[in-house]
Structures are given as C-alpha cells and as structure tokens.
Amino acid sequence: MKRILTVAVAVASMIAASRASAADLPVRTEPPAAYFPGAPRIYDWGGGYIGINGGYAFGQSEWGSDPLNPSGNNSTGNFHVNGGMAGVTMGVSGQFGAFVLGAEGDFDWQGIRGTSGSSFCTSLVTSTAANIFTVTPPAQPVLKTLNAPPAGLSCKTASNWLGTFRARFGYAWDRVLVYGTAGGAGANVETALNGLPYQNNAEWGWTVGAGVEIALAENWTFKVEYLFVDLIGSAACNHAYSCGYDVAATSTTNTSTSAVTTTSPIGSSMSVKLNENIVRVGLNFKFGH
Q: Helix, strand, or coil here: 154?
C-alpha cells in the first residue's frame, strides 16, 4: 500500500510539472486575415458647370476695299491689336470611359485696341469743308482754300465683347482632362479714324482651340486654354462721322456770271477684318453627374 501511494504521488508531481512547463511555452496564434483595399475612385467629369475666366488676347486687323481712297493703296495691311479680357462660362459634359464630350459657351468683356498710321488712313479727310475755286474766263481756276487732312490721322479698330459656343472633346487621366474645342464665335468690331466716334458692328465667325483642365476638389476645376477666333465677316466703316471722306466737297465761283457750282463730298467706305489669339485661365464649379 505504501508503494502504491508513493507511485501515485510521483505521477501527480510529474503531471503538475508538465502542466507548468506547458504554461511557460508561447501561445500559438493564427496570422491576421489579408487586407485588400478597394480600387481608388476615378474622378467623374460628367455633369454641368459654371465658372469665370480671364486672360489676354492679341491679333490682327486690316482696313481695305475703299476704291476711291486718295492714297491709291488697296489696304492698310495687317496691324496689331491686343488687350485683356474677363467673363463667364457655362457648359455640360458626359464621360464615356476615359473620353469626355460636351458643349460650352462663354461671354467675355474685352479691351482690344489697335491703330494703323498707313497712308490708306492718313490720306482721308475728316471734314466736308469745300475746296474753293475762283474762275475768271478765260483764265484757269484759281484755288483759294484747300481742305487738308489733319496731322497724325490713323485708323482705329477695337472690340469690347466676345462670345463663343463650342463643342469640347477630350481624354481624362483621372483628375486631369486634355481637350480640344471648336465652334462659332461673335464679337463687336468698332471702327473709326482717330478723334472721331466709333462705328459699331456685330460680326460672326469661327473658333478652334485646346486646353488642360484639372480637378482641384470634388466640385472645383481649373483650366488653361488657347483659342483662335476669326471673324469671317468684314465690319464696315462707311459712316462719314466715323471714317471721313475720300473726296471733300468743292465750290467753284465764276466771276463773270457769279454762278456758283458745288459738288457733294464722297464718304470713304472701308471693310475691316479682325482675328484674335486668346490665352486664358478659368475656374469652374461642377454640379450633377
């Protein structure tokens, strides 16, 4: 019996010791489950937008087509015009994969100005004051007073508004959109000799360009673009109060008969062309999808 108790105590001691050793071993843990993040959200260029824009325009104007111009020249040749601009933009786009298609319109105030000192301009007269001749037969007429053009005469072209309506077609790399654009354009063209009031004409043409637009936030985008605008119609400068005369009025007095013969002045009649290169930036607020 004593031997049985001794064996039982020994076995119990061995079991207790093995349990204590097992408690000191590190606990086996399972590895964490793998994490697969979702695909990043691609920016959606679809929806409508409104915005503001501003920039600089430079281009060329030409006066011509005045058959009675005293200089004998056909035109002034091209001369430079330039100035700043600012305005508003509205548009809508749809996205098809990476391709973005839409329509956009804008209206800008602009301060485009330019002048030409060509002889085509300096030969014009700005008054109907008569050239007065005295005739005493059989002698030749004697010129008494000659109406001369003022010094520094020049042709002025200006424009103070521009509007376009265009298609836009582009390719998007997430938040960056590169696009081309083309459509119609209209602007006012103001014409006059210096010192005289402008004659105002609305003219129409076409425009083409390209740009880059970047999404700054969910609803805000920033763009830089270039447009070329060609007003294919020619503005008129045919009001004498703005554009002067090719031929002044004349008055001839016959001293023998006291008869006075007068002729009417002939107003100048020019056609004026204008084109513009526009570089501008814009900030748009986008809504809808």
A: coil
